[in-house]
Design a protein that fits this description.
By secondary structure, the chain is an alpha+beta fold. Helix content is 42%, strand content 20%. The strands form two sheets. A seven-stranded mixed sheet has the order 1-5-6-10-9-8-7, sandwiched between helices. Helix 5 (115-129) packs across helix 11 (318-326). The longest helix is centred in the first third of the chain and has 37 residues, at 60-96. It is elongated and about 115 Å long. The structure holds phenylalanine.
Length: 345
Amino acid sequence: MNSANDLEELKTRLLADLNLAVSGASESPRLEDLKTKYLGKKGEIYGLMRGMGALPADQRPAFGQKVNELRDLAEERFAALEAKAEEQAINAKLAQSTLDPTLPGIRAPMGHLHPLSQVREDTINFFRGLGFELAEAQEVDHEWYNFEALNIPPDHPSRDMHDTFYVDEGIVLRTHTSNTQVHYLLDHKEPPIRILAPGFVYRVDNDATHSPMFQQVECLVVDENISFSHLKGTLFLWAKHVFGPDVNMRFRPSYFPFTEPSAEMDISCIFCGGKGCRVCKQSGWIEVGGCGSVDPAVFEKVGWDPERYTGFAFGFGIDRIAMLKYGIPNIAHLTRGDTRFLRQF
Ligand code: PHE
């Protein structure tokens, strides 16, 4: 029979049981058993609710409300006791363990860009900022693009400079990124042309400063009224960006069949500031790469009007720039993949 007395009795018993459960006495009931007993689907509180039908109809609302209050009280008490028990369990575990959660962790080794990639990305970003577009051409190419179109006929002595790897009759591993100039000018006929083309090139060459496969970055600008001073201005900006504001620069007359005039660009030695040291062989200058104004013969080969258009181009070894920038004495260090070496950059 349900009555207010039953309800009071249940409440008293529940509170007493809870007290006992947390008293720590050996015969004390377990919290989860008590929860089932009182709050479970078949527990006593729901039992009171289910029995409510036997009450006179006018007593049901008031009684129902009291049962609800008791259920809320029980839920609240159980939740509080459970939280406390959980905290105690964690504290007990921590007190036992030798793990010190306040010790700093062990940092996982983190990779970073290879120095060659750093130089390449930095150069790309710099030229992008000047409005240049990225371009690329194939590494395995017909020799016409690598040589003939660049004004280097088959019997031309400058082919010897290039120590070419032949893949097949007439097919070469490109010896320089200058083949990009040819492909780009054939495919794009809308001036102005402002491209930067980084990529791998191959030469039969192997010593402390040369490797058979290395990276170059090619630059080509074509428009009306492009002069050698545009080349100088562009390269000076770039040199200051890469080697610092104090770097000096000079052009030495040189020869490339696809540029006229041609020059070799030197920067003042960044190791001795131009005074002369071992790296610059006491000259105070370090060679960076070749450049020049686009030879009219190249424009003719690719179908551009040499009377109307002029341009400039340069090609630098990325490996060489990385070696200079980071003071690396042997090019092979860059491609050996030894992380003890690479970690430094
Ligand atoms: N292609 C030349 C080389 O590899 C460099 C160069 C590029 C020179 C563009 C002039 C203009 O040596």
